Amino acid sequence: MKKLVVLSGAGISAESGIRTFRDMGGLWEEYDIMEVASPQGWKNNMELVLQFYNERRKQLANCIPNKAHYKLAELEKYFDVNIITQNVDDLHERAGSSNILHLHGELTKAVSCENKNLIYDIKYNEIKVGDKCKSGFQLRPFIVWFGEPVPLMDKAIEITKTADIFLIIGTSLNVYPAAGLINYVKINVPIYLIDPNNTNCTKKVTFIKETACKGMDKFFNLLVNNN
Fold first, then answer.
1. Structural domains of the chain sorted by starting position, each given as residue range(s) with its CATH number in brackets
2. Which residue of the set 69, 92, 102, 104 is catalytic?
3. I need a surface site. Which of 18, 31, 113, 197 has the fewest CB within 10 A?
4. 3-state secondary structure the chain
5. What are 171-193's pLDDT values in tens digits?
6. Whose CA is closest to 6, among 81, 79, 73?
7. Averaged over 37-45, what is the pLDDT?
């Protein structure tokens, strides 16, 4: 069974109603991104940051996976699929995909401020000031903020190197280091890119210039009918 590696970004979740700050001039749900997604923002106003992610979690609970998520899950019938996602939502999981690596963290989890190994599954519940890990330290969102290292990047690179087919969906390849994964795809491995916008990709790729849902329909038919 061929190995299909997928790099997904915010564009795949946008059709489920999850807005992206990059579409709104550096704002995320009307918040300046550095106020709510940086270590300095956390230091300056912990309560605001917790409120922001509590709102995002509440929003996520009311969103559902879309056709693109489900089509990716269906491809597991035909391929060994690994998804590397920049998204912090759980829509890939809820659509039924089995192998998902969240590069930038997960909204439905909390982590200790002092011990990054103490991670808690909180689903769609709130984190409040005073909520602590078992060691007595404040819990924070399990999110990789701007200025923080991406701990799963090495694992993502290793997965990318195993691809027989590489798909990029819903990302314009502007977010690094995730955008650099394309450089680890082996020579002669076909690369497909689904996005309605122009991208910064300099590699040889097959463009499917559609939204995620329409693009996944085309990609699915292309792959399943040709293999």
1. 1-16+65-104+150-227 (3.40.50.1220), 19-62+106-143 (3.30.1600.10)
2. 104
3. 197
4. CCEEEEEECHHHHHCCCCCCHHHHCCEECCEEHHHHCCHHHHHHCHHHHHHHHHHHHHHHHCCCCCHHHHHHHHHHHCCEEEEEECCCCCHHHHHCCCCEEECCEEEEEEEECCCCCCEEECCCCCCCCCCECCCCCEEEEEECCCCCCCCCHHHHHHHHHCCCEEEEECCCCCCCCHHHHHHHCCCCCCEEEECCCCCCCCCCCEEECCCHHHHHHHHHHHHHHHC
5. 877 777 887 899 999 999 999 99
6. 81
7. 95
Amino acid identity of residue 35, one-letter, is E
Is residue 104 flagged as an active site residue? yes
Q: What is the dihedral of CA 164, 80, 157, 111, to 10 degrees?
A: 160
- What does the mean pLDDT of the chain come to? 92
Cα(215)–Cα(66) distance, integer angstroms = 12
Backbone φ, ψ for residue 149 (5° rounding): -70, 155
Q: Determine contact, residues 91/63, Cβ cutoff 8 Å.
A: yes
Return the amino acid letter for 169: I
